[in-house]
User: Fold this.
Amino acid sequence: MDKRDPELDQMLDTLRGDRPTEKELRGWQAATLAATRGNRRYLWPALAAGLIGVVLGAAGAWNAPRGEEPCLNTYSQKLAVENSESDATFELTYVKLD
Amino acid sequence: MTKSDIAWSQVVRELSPGLLSYFQVVFPREIAADLVQETLLRLVMKVRGGSFQPTVGSLRMYAYGIARLVRLEGRRSEGRVLHVVDPDQVADERAGAEGDQKRLLRRAIARLKGLEQEVILLLVDRDLTLAEIAALLDVPVGTVKSHVHRAKENLKDMLRETHAGER
Assistant:
């Protein structure tokens, strides 16, 4: 049972007498309302910034170079080594560790 | 004034008396009033930020979760300013303005340790249930009940000793 202790409640009643003054209440109400409005003020700029981010992200994805999909756990990259006597091309294979 | 504004004004009116009593047990009146405002502002921010979930608990309970943090931060900052926060000294300084019984009870609560003190402070708000206090402190209701019982006995002992000492 979620029942409070009446004897203790009676003891604690002594501490419950002080109530906020009307002036304090009005001050707190004004502060909380200012806080809620403050949030609203930043809502539209935040939404606009988010929208721009989405558009730029989509444009970047659209223009991104498309190549062969790498295989599941490895991908390779060919490096042409300039200024090399052998004109060799090295292929580096990276292994992705999951 | 929008509906939301009216609702927040009502929340402030409903929660602030309990919060003020809660903070006043351990802080002087002016600091307690500042901490009430700090709690209410954080509450607004968190609710508007979507952190409050009505399915988990009441707004009152959520507010006291914030108030606990604000109280602990307030104690630390008061300690920095005053260097030493001696509950007896704070209680004695208030003696002129307050009734003797209230002063003695505050002093006794300040001497309680850990969870016993936490439970008693939260019980100062008559509208918090034991289940809500248990959820706030993240302990079973049975643990809250046993701490309530022990805290009450300790408070009675301390008050008896004080009265006997004054005679």
